[in-house]
Design brief:
The structure holds 2 protein chains of 2 kinds.
Chain A lengths: L2 H26 L3 H10 L1 H11 L5 H23 L5 H24 L6 H6 L9 E4 L2 E5 H19 L1 H9 L1 H7 L3 H23 L1 H16 L5 H26 L3 H19 L5 H26 L13 H5 L6 H13 L3 E4 L2 E4 L1 H15 L6 H8 L5
Antiparallel strand pairs in A: 1-2, 3-4
Chain B lengths: L1 H9 L1 H26 L5 H8 L1 H11 L4 H25 L4 H25 L6 H8 L7 H20 L1 H9 L1 H6 L4 H40 L5 H25 L5 H19 L5 H29 L8 E2 L1 H4 L6 H9 L3 E4 L2 E4 L1 H9 L1
Antiparallel strand pairs in B: 1-3, 2-3
Classes of the chains: A mainly alpha, B mainly alpha.
Chain lengths: ~400, ~375
């Protein structure tokens, strides 16, 4: 590996971490799209900062641009407060307006200087090491690496320092308010960090990758765990893997690094989305199917119990009743439920008449008890105890 | 202005571009109304980004730059993005904001990967692809406008055919379900129309500004009407106007690119509507507030007068104005206004309730 390659990967990892940490809180607070808005609406701030400083990585420019990001949030919130439109509509209106202003200033003031709109959107990580930070004639590495390291340390420091406040205000805003942490302060603190990170990263990786790095790792992590600490850890891990993996994909396929990192993030998310143990698509769908089967079984057993006392051979207990009588199930469902009930030793069938077994009686009785006492949440436990085969 | 009108009458290119952006604005205005009302505002942004890989793949597969082909590719990948977003919000604990952000950034990133690969090919001429990314209305040619026009008219006809279904789906999907409509299919159909409108709009304003072109006309129109039909017509007019005015401004000043100008015009329309809408606007809201405050103050003063008057048998007995000075919220101006309304009489330093004033005070 050449030193430029190492530097690129370092920058990618630092950017990824700096994005994933505030991203975790944004995803939990359901404000992920605000990062998309910020990443676009910083353009006029960058342009104005550039007009003033004539230097794309000057701290003043970063400050101006970050301020525009926070301004976006303020504008969105004041529009939402009028109740004339919903928050998402306000977001969708404000950032294109800001971006348009940026584009117009560029086209009317700057001619062909090297900020153009597609660089802001797409970015090119491969060029990041070209801009060196030189102090006292000593080359200490790429500027963007130091900028992002600075932002990452600030984020880490603030997050560790305000961890409790962030956690409580994210999960229970009212509790936080009653404990005396002003939610609005925490909110703007998070917005400022997001804005600063976005601005710092745009030059190296482009707006879209910033959005991907802020949202995708935490969203994937959220499907894997319920614990905030673990979520932060997983999301950092995914961020690092995709930063390094994305770089090598781009290297092998000779294509855009930002794009490859975003694509790899997408593949990781797709994998988690499908296969996550409790919250993945496959697990969710099979759980729904199982619950539906078990619910239908319970309905059927309660029906049997209901008719077990009436007389010796009530039509309600005949097999044909399932397809013709009260239930009107189709044949395959009726067969499935009968098999399911028999397999679990809940019923016995003699001459086309269905009887509850002792086990079935006990199961149904307990279930009815829970239902009548409004304790339906205990049904799942009961299924766990009774059923030999789950639905 | 005059210069532009002259151009509009004589210059064929300007006519083409103006017609193109007007149709695009109109289509986006109509379908944007559904997006706004169904609380899918940011779907436009996500779909605009997720159209990119479709365009790139269409180009890779066929090797030709053709507007219709790009529209088909973009729409397909936009619809895939929309379906995935829907599946994420429906089946996992992630909320729509995360789902939108994931699809938006990942699809766009993948699109960039494909574009970079295309760029490296020797025969690639990327100009046509760029148009979808950043929107260059100025490059619209008559054949593009014909394609855009036909698609626009087709989706308009389909919306009229499915009007009742879409209306119920928008305002009360549960009710639509109980009526026996297949709401999943209807939802997919309406979303597909929105995707097509977005893909058309990409050519005028590009990926980033697309969400504003879709939302702004609808958000503005929403302020002027509470009826879906009226709102959609107003929204279509706003959309077309933004396209026409935006093209006009940028065609007379070549340094201003069309897309951002169109968006800024549309957003200006929104701001104007926010302020000046008669029923919901901020201005009328403020006026109503001032009026209410004034009538509250008068009523309060009148009530306080009644308390003083009630201590006396004859309600028309005059009392000193000084008595009122200590009361909370009392202002000299109130006396004058109450007198003008004929509710009290003032003689020198005394006031008394008129019969009308007494009745009104009793009724508060």
């Amino acid at each position: 590996m050449s030193s430029a390659q190492i530097e690129i990967q370092l920058i990618a990892v630092v950017v990824a971490l700096a994005c994933a940490i505030p991203g975790t809180f944004l995803v939990l607070r359901q404000m992920a799209m605000i990062s998309d808005a910020i990443s676009h609406s910083i353009l006029p701030g960058i342009v104005i900062g550039f007009l003033i400083t004539q230097n794309i990585s000057s701290p003043i420019l970063i400050f101006f641009a970050a301020l525009t990001g926070v301004l976006t949030v303020v504008v969105v919130e004041s529009i939402t407060k009028t109740k004339l439109v919903k928050e998402d509509t306000a977001i969708g209106l404000v950032f294109p307006a800001f971006f348009s202003i940026g584009v117009l200033i560029i086209s009317s003031q700057l001619g062909n200087i090297h900020i153009d709109t597609d660089a802001v959107l797409v970015g090119e990580l491969a060029y990041a090491p070209l801009d060196r930070l030189i102090i006292f004639d000593i080359d200490i590495g790429p500027v963007s690496l130091w900028v992002m390291l600075g932002i990452l340390s600030l984020t880490l420091f603030l997050m560790i320092f305000f961890y409790k406040e962030l956690k409580i205000s994210t999960f229970d805003a009212e509790l936080a308010a009653s404990l005396g942490f002003t939610p609005i302060v925490i909110h703007y603190f998070l917005m400022s960090i997001t804005s600063l990170t976005t601005v710092g990263a745009f030059n190296a990786v482009g707006a879209i990758l910033v959005v991907a790095l802020i949202i995708v790792p935490p969203a994937s992590a959220y499907l894997l765990t319920n614990d905030l600490n673990k979520m932060l850890f997983y999301s950092s891990l995914i961020a690092i893997i995709s930063a390094i993996g994305g770089y090598w994909i781009a290297h092998l396929a000779n294509t855009s690094i930002s794009g490859s990192i975003a694509t790899l993030l997408g593949l990781i998310f797709l994998f988690v989305f499908l296969f996550a143990p409790d919250n993945g698509l496959i697990s969710v769908i099979s759980r729904q199917k199982r619950q539906k089967m078990e619910f239908t079984l319970l309905t059927f057993l309660i029906h049997l119990k209901n008719h077990s006392f009436s007389n010796n051979n009530p039509p309600e207990r005949e097999i044909s009743h399932l397809t013709e009588g009260h239930f009107r199930w189709n044949k395959s469902l009726a067969k499935k439920i009968l098999d399911f009930a028999e397999k679990n030793n809940m019923i016995s069938i003699e001459n086309g008449i269905i009887n509850l077994t002792e086990r079935g009686e006990k199961f149904t009785g307990e279930a009815l008890n829970f239902i009548l006492n409004n304790e339906t949440s205990k049904l799942e436990d009961m299924n766990e105890r009774f059923l030999l085969f789950r639905g | 202005m005059f210069e532009y009108l002259n151009l509009l009458l004589t210059d064929f290119t300007i006519q083409t571009i103006t017609l193109g952006t007007a149709i695009i604005g109109l289509t986006c205005g109509i379908l944007g109304s559904f997006a706004v009302l169904r609380k899918q505002s940011l779907l436009g942004d996500a779909i605009a980004h997720s159209a990119l890989p479709g365009i790139a793949i269409a180009f890779i597969l066929t090797g030709v730059k053709d507007t219709l082909l790009f529209i088909i590719g973009a729409s397909l990948s936009g619809i895939i993005g929309a379906i995935w977003i829907n599946s994420i919000t429906k089946n996992t604990r992630l909320k729509s904001d995360s789902a939108l952000g994931i699809i938006l950034s990942v699809f766009f990133g993948f699109g960039i990967v494909l574009l970079t690969i295309i760029q490296r090919k020797p025969n690639a001429n990327q100009a046509g692809l760029e148009r979808f990314l950043f929107g260059q209305a100025a490059t619209l040619v008559p054949s593009d406008v014909i394609v855009i026009g036909i698609i626009g008219i087709l989706s308009l006809i389909l919306i009229i055919i499915f009007w009742k279904e879409f209306k119920i789906l928008t305002f009360d999907p549960q009710f639509a379900k109980t009526l026996g409509y297949n709401i999943h299919l209807l939802d997919l159909l309406l979303t597909s129309f929105i995707v097509v409108a977005i893909v058309l709009g990409l050519q005028a304003v590009g990926v980033v500004l697309m969400s504003a072109l879709l939302l702004a006309p609808a958000a503005a129109a929403r302020q002027w009407s509470n009826k879906l039909g009226t709102m959609i017509i107003i929204s279509a007019i706003f959309g077309a106007l933004s396209g026409i005015i935006g093209t006009a401004i940028s065609s007379t000043n070549l340094r201003l690119s069309t897309g951002p100008i169109i968006v800024l015009i549309a957003v200006t329309l929104v701001l104007l509507s926010f302020v000046f809408s008669p029923s919901r606007g901020l201005l009328s809201r403020q006026l109503r507030y001032i009026k209410n405050r004034k009538s509250m103050r008068l009523n309060k003063t009148l009530q306080q007068m009644l308390e003083i008057v009630d201590s006396h048998e004859d309600f028309s007995h005059p009392h000193s104005i000084k008595l009122l000075n200590d009361l909370q919220g009392f202002r000299k101006k109130c006396l004058k206004e109450l007198e003008n309304l004929g509710l009290i009489k003032i003689q020198l330093n005394n006031w008394s309730l008129t019969e009308e004033g007494y009745k009104k005070a009793k009724s508060i």
